[in-house]
C-alpha cells in the first residue's frame, strides 16, 4: 500500500543547467599583428585567449615562455561596436554620416557622438569635460526632435532625454539627418555611443581586467585598441594592433551539468534500502523516458530526518567556437 502511495505522487522536478567553460591556453611564438594572430588562433585552436578572472590570468602566466616581452590576448577595443541609446539598438551602419576621418578615437575615450549643424558626425569623449547641447527624441510629441540648450555630458544628456522625452535621438536615414541637423546651431549629442574594451575576440563580455598601472592611456594621434600581456608580470597593456607580437590562443571546452531537485512526500519508510533502490529504478526509467541518457543517480542525506534525492547528469563535450 505504501509503495503505491509513493509512486502515484507526481514528482516535481526542478532542473538547473549550468555550462562551465574550460579554457586551455597555448602560447604561440610567431610574430603577428593582433588580427593575424586572431585568424591563426581561430584556425588552429578556438580563438585568441579570453581571461575571465584572476585564476585564468594565473594560468595564462603559467604557459608563457620567457622569450619576448609581450604577447597578444583576445581583448580589444572595438571601434565599430556602436549602439543607439534608444532601445540599446546595435548600430547597423546602414546609414551613417561620419565626417571624413571619424570616428577616430583621437586622444582616447571618444565613445560618444556629436552631430554638427552641417549634419556631420564626430566621436568625442562622453565626459563632463566636454559638455554639449543634446537632441532628444520625443516619440509621442508634437515635435519628434527637441534640442536641449543646457550643456551636459553625454550620460546626463541621456538621463535628461529619458526623463523628459523618450531618449537621445537616433538617426536612421538621410532625411532624418537633414531634419535634425536643420535644428542645430552647434555640435550636439545624439544617441550613438559605444563601450570601450567591452568584448573579447570570442565575444565574451568583459568582466575582469588586469591593466598595468596607468593603462589604458592616451597617446596623441595613436590608436591603441589591442591588449598585450607582459610575460614577466601578467599585467595588461594597450597597444597598436598592427604591432607584431607573440600571442596566446585558447582551446575551449564546455562542460554541462544539470541538477534536478525532487520532492517526495510519503508515509513510506524512506530509510528502507529496498524502497530506496526501487525509487531509484523508477526514477531512472522516468528520466530515460524524457530523453536523458548518461546520468548517475544517488541518494544524499541532507539532514537527520529526511532523505533528499539528487540526480546529476554530467556530460563533457568538446566544442569549438
Ligand atoms: C574563471 O573563469 C573560467 C572561465 O574562463 C571558469 O571556468 C572558472 O571557473 C573561473 N574561476 C573562478 C575562480 O571564478
Ligand atoms: C556626467 O556629469 C555628472 C554630473 O552632472 C557626473 O556625475 C558623471 O560622472 C558625468 N559622467 C561622465 C561620463 O563624465
Ligand atoms: C528633465 O529631466 C531632468 C532630470 O533628468 C530634470 O532635472 C528636469 O527638470 C526636467 N526638465 C523638464 C523641462 O521637465
Ligand atoms: C527615415 O526613418 C524614419 C524613422 O525610422 C522613417 O519614419 C522614414 O520613413 C524614413 N524615411 C526614408 C526616406 O526612408
Ligand atoms: C551628411 O548630412 C548632411 C546633412 O544631413 C548632408 O548635407 C551631407 O550630404 C551628408 N554627408 C554625406 C557624406 O552623405
Ligand atoms: C577614459 O575614461 C575613463 C572613464 O571615464 C577614465 O577613468 C579614464 O581615465 C579615461 N582615460 C583617459 C586616457 O582619458
Ligand atoms: Ca573624434
From TrEMBL:
Pfam families recorded:
Lectin_C (PF00059)
Domain C-type lectin stretches: 25-132, 132-250
Task: Tell me the protein's name.
Answer: C-type lectin domain-containing protein
Q: Where is the signal peptide?
A: 1-20
SMART domains found in the cross-reference section = CLECT (SM00034)
List UniProt keywords, sorted A-Z. Answer: Disulfide bond, Signal
Q: Which organism is it from?
A: Zoarces viviparus (Viviparous eelpout)
Q: Determine the domain of life of the protein's source.
A: Eukaryota
Q: Record's PANTHER family?
A: C-TYPE LECTIN DOMAIN FAMILY 20 MEMBER A-RELATED, C-TYPE LECTIN DOMAIN FAMILY 4 MEMBER K-LIKE-RELATED
Instruction: List the Gene3D superfamilies hit by this protein, alphabetically.
Output: Mannose-Binding Protein A, subunit A
Amino acid at each position: 500500500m505504501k509503495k503505491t502511495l509513493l509512486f502515484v505522487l507526481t514528482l516535481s522536478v526542478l532542473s538547473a543547467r549550468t555550462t562551465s567553460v574550460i579554457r586551455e591556453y597555448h602560447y604561440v611564438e610567431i610574430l603577428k599583428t593582433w588580427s593575424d594572430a586572431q585568424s591563426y588562433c581561430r584556425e588552429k585552436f578556438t580563438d585568441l585567449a579570453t581571461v575571465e578572472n584572476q585564476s585564468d590570468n594565473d594560468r595564462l602566466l603559467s604557459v608563457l615562455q620567457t622569450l619576448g616581452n609581450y604577447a597578444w590576448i583576445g581583448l580589444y577595443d572595438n571601434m565599430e561596436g556602436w549602439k543607439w541609446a534608444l532601445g540599446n539598438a546595435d548600430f547597423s551602419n546602414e546609414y551613417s554620416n561620419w565626417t571624413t576621418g571619424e570616428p577616430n578615437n583621437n586622444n582616447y575615450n571618444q565613445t560618444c557622438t556629436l552631430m554638427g549643424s552641417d549634419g556631420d558626425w564626430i566621436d568625442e569623449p562622453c565626459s563632463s569635460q566636454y559638455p554639449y547641447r543634446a537632441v532628444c527624441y520625443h516619440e509621442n510629441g508634437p515635435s519628434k526632435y527637441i534640442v536641449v540648450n543646457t550643456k551636459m555630458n553625454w550620460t546626463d544628456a541621456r538621463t535628461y532625454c529619458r526623463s523628459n522625452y523618450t531618449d537621445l535621438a537616433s538617426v536612421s536615414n538621410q532625411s532624418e539627418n537633414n531634419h535634425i541637423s536643420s535644428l542645430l546651431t552647434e555640435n550636439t549629442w545624439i544617441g550613438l555611443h559605444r563601450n570601450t574594451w567591452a568584448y573579447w575576440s570570442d565575444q565574451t563580455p568583459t568582466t575582469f581586467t588586469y591593466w598595468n598601472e596607468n593603462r589604458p592611456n592616451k597617446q596623441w594621434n595613436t590608436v591603441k585598441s589591442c591588449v598585450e600581456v607582459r610575460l614577466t608580470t601578467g599585467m595588461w597593456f594597450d597597444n597598436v594592433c598592427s604591432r607584431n607580437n607573440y600571442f596566446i590562443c585558447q582551446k575551449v571546452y564546455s562542460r554541462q551539468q544539470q541538477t534536478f531537485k525532487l520532492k517526495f512526500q510519503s508515509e513510506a519508510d524512506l530509510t528502507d534500502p529496498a524502497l530506496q533502490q526501487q525509487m531509484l529504478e523508477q526514477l531512472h526509467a522516468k528520466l530515460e523516458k524524457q530523453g536523458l541518457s548518461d546520468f548517475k543517480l544517488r541518494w544524499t542525506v541532507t539532514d537527520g530526518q529526511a532523505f533528499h534525492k539528487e540526480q546529476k547528469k554530467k556530460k563533457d563535450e568538446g566544442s569549438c567556437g
